[in-house]
Queue: 4 jobs
Job 1
Amino acid sequence: MSGRAATTTTRCPGCRAPILTQLVGHRAALNVTADIRPLTPEQQAEARTPHRLIWCLKSSPHSTPRLRWIDRLHPPDCPHPHVADHHCPPAAPTTLF
């Protein structure tokens, strides 16, 4: 066994949106839940906050997709799609009686 965590596709229990989940990193790994929809560079800039990271979704014909850190060494012309941490959309307002 390689020790690498597999990326799984499921649905968010809160909003039912399709999401990717994976343990990213080797030492201080993060349990990442990311949206499945790829973002344009403009959408990435809009979505990125100190509490919402953008991830590289690396894939190849011979392996399952894997979430990777986007750090200062990440190539600006990366050919892989980039996705954001998942945040449920705001709930519709309800009236309490």
Job 2
Amino acid sequence: MSPVLAAGAAPAPSAMRAVWGSPLYRGATVALFLSGLGASAAAPQITLFLVDDLHVSLTTAGLYYLTSITAPVAGYIVGARSDRTGRRLGLFRLCAVAGFLGWCAMALADQVWMPFVISAVVLAFAGGAGSQLFAAVHDDLRATASPVGDGVVSVVRMALTAGWIVGPVAGSLLATAAGPRAMLVATGLCTLAQILPMGLAGARSAPPGEQAADASRASAGRRVGVGGMLPLLAFTGLYVLVYAGEPIKYGYLTIYMHDDLRLPTAVSGAVIGIQPLIELVLMPVAVVVARRTGMMRLMVLGAAFGVGANLCFALTGSAAGMFAGQVLMGGVWGVFAGLGIIVAQRLLPEAVATASAVFMSSTAIASALGGLTGSLGVAVLGLPHVFLAPALYGLVATAGIAVMSRSRHAVG
């Protein structure tokens, strides 16, 4: 067979084949699934642990979620260190060990103050593990000039979403069978187990022709100031507004469906469960569409979906409206979950670990904003009109991303 025919017979590049064929990408995919599994198993059970085992009031237990505000600071410290040294996977392993120690210490806590300090000081650094994986994947994709780089990132990110689908159910079953302390230890083991699929994998160095550019970028990364980070910070701030509706939804939508709409448990469970399924289906689709429309332009549509979803929750008053809202919310995260980290890295290409850490840790700020908005909104507006607040946030985010998509900072 001639070389031309042989080349023509070669299979087209595939993100799935690239992930499966690379120890780094494959390991990162499994590691992020374990990360999502552990974190989502613990998240719904923490309040119950504080109330039932440490005997704190519901009001005090609610303050626990404010400890996550330290995560962006810890993430920035880890990211900046990573960009200075280039030790992505070394820092990833340290963050995973910190997470293991933190969750095990949480399981042994016998004083009210202990979970709050552990979360704010130790677990804040555990969240840096995921951002270091994405930075390592980014470096490797650039070094190999992969034609399916965006698709690889999307596949790796889908694993984190898959972990968040399985985790809440697994955590609930384990906490019921063995108690919340055993569940917290299991979360720590999942966090530590992230290290195993990575093995001794490492990101490849850039080709010789790019090493000078790499050195220049690294030097620039050490000099990045607030001015250079403004586009990233603006985008991350708009993402916070999009995300802020999630804690409000998880805090009050189930209550609304049960107490006001009187929906059967099976129906309300199906409403909650449909979003991550839609999200998983749409994430690879979003990568394909973004190649034609541009990432930020697609994110304008994604943010607008969030406005529509919250209006469905606030105004329809029916099971069909709840399903419609969750389908639209699946569209929001089908776009942002797969593309958000890519946009963040491209807005600060000289410091991708810092960009990854800032973007991924911003969910802590969004959770605090959503929790505060939900508490005040329920008192002032009541159910279901509290969902008008995240609809307003989403409207601001839609407008802001639309402005960025037309600026010189637009990411295609």
Job 3
Amino acid sequence: MTSAAPRERLPRNVTAIAATFLVSCLGDGLAITALMLDFHDRAVGSVGIAALFGALSVPAIVLAGPAGRIADRHSARRVLPPLGFALVAVCALMSLARSVVLLVALLAVLSGLMAIAAPVFVKTVLQASPGPLMSRAGALLSMASNLGFLIGPAAGALLMDAIALRGVLLVDAVTYLAVPVVGFFLPRTAGSSEAESTQEPEHKSGFLAGLKILAQDLPLARVVLIGVILTFALQVTNVVEVYLVRDSYGATATVFGLVTTAWAAGQILGAAIAGRWFTERSTARPAALTVVAVGAALLAIAFFDSLPGLFVLTALAGAADGVFGVARQTTVGRTVQPARQGSAAAAHAALLNSATIAALMSAGLITAFAEPRTVYALAGGLILLALAAMHIYRRTDSVKTPAAQAEHVTAATVAALPTD
């Protein structure tokens, strides 16, 4: 049975959604790169670039509650077509806009629509991939999105010279047509809870309900928390990576692009390996080991002065992060009840986006007084320290639990003794 499970084919729903992720992420990479280049050429400054990243992250936090409720109470076939056509319309409007403020506002609307669609996609994939297929489905989604974001920025820079911002945004609009198309072709039962009715749902849904779901199971809560810390640390290093490559090593822009590519390639490879590794295995220990690997790689980058070593360590850290991402998603899918997976996915995305915003704000402060290598050392140390603290807490909790159980049994035994 164990050997046969990896050979089982993924449902068509999953491969279709993965293809949609690939196309839409590629379009997003095109658009973000083109917008950044356009803002740079117009001398908007760092405030405009920060506004772009804020427009990408904030809507997922603000709309986590409605997104979770929609994912838990409505089928993907009902939600995705109107959302997809709305995404296409917003992209088309962006291609006509010239005002920086209007472009940022429309990007925020676009991100808000994707924040609603993402939990629907996640829940549909989890429900279509039971048992040993779950990790492979999560790996396929991770590989598709990483590949899209790997190709998108490079293609966006080339297209920007050829067809300018308006053309790039129209291409992005075309890529979003994949969302309503996949929605129409999903089975009617895909992604629905029990049935869509006007009756009161059995479970509460939304952002707070999603947080409660993630916190109820301690192993899941630990994986989610260390993932938030990992996201924060990696986003901080992303800000200073260009300074490390260009200033500390004196390398060219091409080398910087290759370092970024090494990270993405590592993520794709790590996700591919994890997809088959976790089919019928526990995710707890590998998740912890991959976090250690990321932290150790960041510390090594900080202390070793070698450009080839930077490529190797970046690729290894990316691979470890790819494995951890699949482990985290598989843990969520195995732990959370199907009827509540939408709220859990939306709350999880809100936590990760909050960590991203906090990292971007902190990076500006940290880089004002710290060298790039120091930032890498701080990030790696934070990751390892957080993991060690959680390990100590888990050991303490596991020691207390048997003691509490023994005390409870003793009290129950005493209460059962005759009193005469």
Job 4
Amino acid sequence: MRSANLLNDFAFKYVFGEDCKEANDALKSLLTVFLERSVNKVVVKNSEMVKDYSKMKNPRLDLLVEFDDRTMVDLEMQLRQTQDYLPIRFSYYLARLHGSQQLEGKYYGELKETIVLVFFNVNLIDNNRMCNTFTLKNEDGLSFVKETEDRMKIRTVEMAKLDVNKPLEDMNEQEKMIYYFLNCHKGMDDSKIKVMIESDGVIQMLEKRVETISDDGWKKIIEDFRKLHENEERMERQLELEEAHKAQEEAKKTLQEANKLNQEANKLNQEADKKVEEANKQVEEVKKRADESDKEIEKMNQERVLMIQTMLKNGMSVSQIAKCLSKGEEEILEVLK
């Protein structure tokens, strides 16, 4: 066993992105195989390695490469699912890459092709294809633009879908390269790797690049990768804690607002109760006054009856009494009933 390991994004960028002939040759082979197109010249636009990743919240170890026809490819090795949903993340990478082109004084037809090429060690796409290409299409598969004019693509390679037990002679170039990625650490101890190194020109080019890195160099790359992802996981946990704290603060704020609304509602209820009480009090006062008025009227009626009865006893006639009280005789008789 050797320390060489292509299954980490740190080593991936170093192996294919370093500014040297071996790395550039390996990169051209990789792009030729997985983009299924001839690659004569390619330039890495961000060959520098991350120096201090301990303070980086989300370090990216992608390779941004440009072909001689100015096609731009964002190349990345993604080993695991993260807090960010990967398909959405890489859709954003494609949009950002495509939108980075300078168009001042130019037509949109002059936009160059942009491709995001991602190697996954997890299964994301719900089919059996190891390699998938995604473009702008409608529900029926109709392309938004002509296939020859489609300048935005996402190319995914799901390495976990490789049948590692498939006979070497039945593997295509893509499957062979992925097998090499998955088993590079075994070197000549793996029978398929041994045969490919001895007879396959593409794999020989990759192996030549791998062999330019010493065993100590590989150990350092792997250690840096471990530290990088420990830091990434720490940052993710910190982000989760921050989001949990934020959610807790928002819940606390919501509870305070609810309590405030409840207090205001109680205050409104108390004010309403007070107004109802005052209204009831006023009604009682009105009823009391009405009762007193009724009693006063009753008393006056009784006194009037006694007065009329007295006047009758004194010999006055009904007509005389009516005239004396300025009432009609019918009213006097009605009072006496």
